[in-house]
Amino acid sequence: MTRKIGVIGMGHVGSTVAHYIVANGFTDDLVLIDKNEDKVNSDALDFQDAMPNLPFHTNIYVNDYSALGDADVIISAVGNIDLIKQTDGKDRFVELSNNVEAVKSISAKIKSSGFNGILDVITNPVDVITSIYQKETGLPKEKVIGTGTLLDSARMKRAVAAKLNIDSRSVDGYNLGEHGNSQFTAWSTVKVFGEPITNLVKENNLNLDTLDKDARDGGFEVFKGKFYTNYGVATAAVKLANAIISDSKSQLVVSNYRKEYGVYLSYPAIVGKNGIEKQINLNLTKEELEKLQYSADFINQKFEENK
Amino acid sequence: MTRKIGVIGMGHVGSTVAHYIVANGFTDDLVLIDKNEDKVNSDALDFQDAMPNLPFHTNIYVNDYSALGDADVIISAVGNIDLIKQTDGKDRFVELSNNVEAVKSISAKIKSSGFNGILDVITNPVDVITSIYQKETGLPKEKVIGTGTLLDSARMKRAVAAKLNIDSRSVDGYNLGEHGNSQFTAWSTVKVFGEPITNLVKENNLNLDTLDKDARDGGFEVFKGKFYTNYGVATAAVKLANAIISDSKSQLVVSNYRKEYGVYLSYPAIVGKNGIEKQINLNLTKEELEKLQYSADFINQKFEENK
Amino acid sequence: MTRKIGVIGMGHVGSTVAHYIVANGFTDDLVLIDKNEDKVNSDALDFQDAMPNLPFHTNIYVNDYSALGDADVIISAVGNIDLIKQTDGKDRFVELSNNVEAVKSISAKIKSSGFNGILDVITNPVDVITSIYQKETGLPKEKVIGTGTLLDSARMKRAVAAKLNIDSRSVDGYNLGEHGNSQFTAWSTVKVFGEPITNLVKENNLNLDTLDKDARDGGFEVFKGKFYTNYGVATAAVKLANAIISDSKSQLVVSNYRKEYGVYLSYPAIVGKNGIEKQINLNLTKEELEKLQYSADFINQKFEENK
Amino acid sequence: MTRKIGVIGMGHVGSTVAHYIVANGFTDDLVLIDKNEDKVNSDALDFQDAMPNLPFHTNIYVNDYSALGDADVIISAVGNIDLIKQTDGKDRFVELSNNVEAVKSISAKIKSSGFNGILDVITNPVDVITSIYQKETGLPKEKVIGTGTLLDSARMKRAVAAKLNIDSRSVDGYNLGEHGNSQFTAWSTVKVFGEPITNLVKENNLNLDTLDKDARDGGFEVFKGKFYTNYGVATAAVKLANAIISDSKSQLVVSNYRKEYGVYLSYPAIVGKNGIEKQINLNLTKEELEKLQYSADFINQKFEENK
């Protein structure tokens, strides 16, 4: 069968996601959806203007929810960047009530389409929104996943790698919890040079608090310069989609429902064609567990207020 | 040696060019330049946030003209989208005086860097701007190339392919002349189903004038929906850059200096590491030659007014 | 749904096809089949040893015909290279009776699997074998395709490009008829520098007969040095498979059933998810039509002798 | 500048390396060298027959040592598979004296070319051969690297991943020492599910000795079925080459000169354009250190006997 991906929301992020997919031939059918018909038609046409000069062909469908029925993955990139601008990009929750309404309406349409694939949610605040998508679509919890701190972990790797002058792909480890201000780098999971980074602090003159802040505020740094962020998060979302479609059973840190916390939050899991194929359990320190509980409580409270 | 590409101008087009390059590992070193330091730093950081989740590594340098000295290709994507918006995207010349000033200043800096590679110009109005870049940098004419109607030809292919329900890559042929309103599809060069398209008009119920207009106005159509165009042109510019770097000697329709017209205009040429490696001569019809002359005269007049 | 490709026959060609697919992530599920269990298990393991260092994940299944039931494409690369060696690679028909038996047995198994996708046949002599696959599997004629002269056309492009010092992708045109000694370059279809190549013979000092021979004997040239050919044909077969899976409706010169000749032979067609989506008609010269008829007669005779 | 890679030795491994590079556009210039002129010319032609159907262009040069002078990386894939066959693939040292002679002769030619890039050595027994290359070419030790256990570590990841039903890329850790029978999996470095694998043995019913043997004997398993191994090692060698060319400073386990052992052996290091950019130090267990010393002693003895 052919691969089919839907992208809902063609703002800065959604259009970057779609371009990355088209430019690399990651799907056969691509369904693009946006309330702004002019924008989504414009992007679709622009992709088609790219294709004669690309090695891959992608069939593009616009604003047809029924085409999502047999999609492998739907990527939700809806959002309202204008609202975030009002907070200088510092508070993803300012988007919440607006996005909740959008997500409820979208979920009803996804449900009607008969979609039974995996939802890959970028829309912020992503942990709460992922919960709402799950509740509204009625999809099993393992089939609804948020990109969560897959991006923040990348930012942490970027920050650590820059400090140590190494490839960011040579840094392992995770940021956990909320894709928001209550997240944290679980330093006990971070390994560089074949060692826990905590062993290397002195020798390499590392300030873990600064690095942690750098990861957490990475989005804000990017936001400051262009009033949106797109490349990092689009890459994370497509990596997640590819793991699902190819059923690779990759370990990725994404927002998934953790029973013990009763919420969606970012924690590594094995991802395949059924979504979350297996949850794993890290040996976190007591301090990290407290931070994670704090983050979970924060997400939970926001979800209860908005579900 | 490592591949090195510079991108000057990190607006919608330049940042899309850079992302396409980073996501596909097309270069080893990437130099990003923009007057808006916040924007270019933001994009650079965003690319670095993508890299831990990408299979390729790219070294990114920001706002360092001296780093362009040994670049293989510099892609000029400077422009002022606000000016185009005032004309609803219909007149690329509204940008001219603004861009001429920018290009003169940039050329001086490129010259100082000792750059001796190939200039790949997207900046509009591209034919005039390419001339000005050549004049100001003092680079040989064959080393300064505009993306020109590589994009418009793609739009023509997209339009023809949609009408015939085939892959746009299975349409051959060229739009010639100005990357602007005086361009035209040279239908005598267009081949589909192994035949000149002119033979297939009746059988397939084609209206070549409509298709011609569709190609020429394709940019406007895209512009209408989002107030810029980026994916098609970025793909064309990178295709040109890759042909140069890999010395592929590909035949591409790009803006190159044609002695017989005394201007830069789009006409197919063989492109390799020396830029325009060979110019070719099409057997155009009398009508096409007249249209090309008209287009050349138009470009020439604009160049004389602004050089 | 996920993409699924089967490869039957893991000799030099089949294993190269499989590697090219695995290294580029062109499919999600890959079914490898060979009578030599040791060889196919060895290749499967070798691909899995590559995967930790690859950006793509592929699920590999070995010698399970039932897994072909829902494949998009099956690539037949069975063959007996030892037989060809006896003729110094000059006669693809020496393999025929051996391959016919193999193909009959394989077809029965493909049929049992419930396969309803597209057969992409490399096995030589490809035109006759493709006919036999169609007859034996009972699949509609448009769903059984041979790679045919997609390879020989590439060889012609390579030869012409080398002579003119241009990118082989900048040569258009076709070799037609049998993927064998009765094939020919249809020079009336070949275009370089925007012109029919026949116009450029004098100016560029071309000897079309020599170039024709170069294309036709290209396989023998490669064969001479290593006693098999694999990279060119594997690339052609995968290009065909990708056109099918992505439903690109690309125009490709492949072996397809032409009613007017009553045989499978290579002639350009539009290829998509239904296989041959549309047949096209070239304006061949009288001489080319005669050569094509001769080639068709030859294939037909061989098919009648072996069906 | 353009990327340039040389491949010396066009047997099963070298030709697979070259094909992987050509099919993915990893280099601009590719220099292929083999004593068997027919074979290398055959492969070069076969690659050129693939190119019209590929999205990338590569310039191929055959048997020209002088063209290696400005190469970024030379990959040594010379070897004598017939000798290994005599031992059923179980002893890489049977090739040694034959390969030492070849390597001495090749080194002289590399030296004459003025090559100052990085040597990426696959030739077995790789640790000893890498030493000999370094001695004979006179290149600094950090500029001569063997692929070593980058392959064996991949085999270990494949074995562990298969047992746990996860993506092999989600297994971290290293095989160390000789790319040969004295190697071992350093289980203290292996992490899955965010934990040291040693914590997960009981819960997941793992037998580390069996898995260790599986990694070490992985090559033999592949060899048994086809009497050579190529895809895994070619992928490793190209991964190393790409890290060098893009100066990614990736942490890779490769054969590099460790002063404390006085030999080349596999141990993780940071790899960039200068070759080994930084050596790292693992916290190995006492038992692992003993195994590593044993492996080093073995390599050293073989080197002394053959230098």
UniProtKB/TrEMBL annotation, chains A, B, C, D:
The Lactate/malate dehydrogenase C-terminal domain is annotated at 149-304
Q: Which Pfam families match?
A: Ldh_1_C, Ldh_1_N
Q: Does the keyword Nuclease apply?
A: no
UniProt keyword list: Oxidoreductase
Record domain Lactate/malate dehydrogenase N-terminal: where: 4-146
Write down the superkingdom of origin.
Bacteria
Family the entry assigns: Belongs to the LDH/MDH superfamily. LDH family.
Q: What is this protein called?
A: L-lactate dehydrogenase
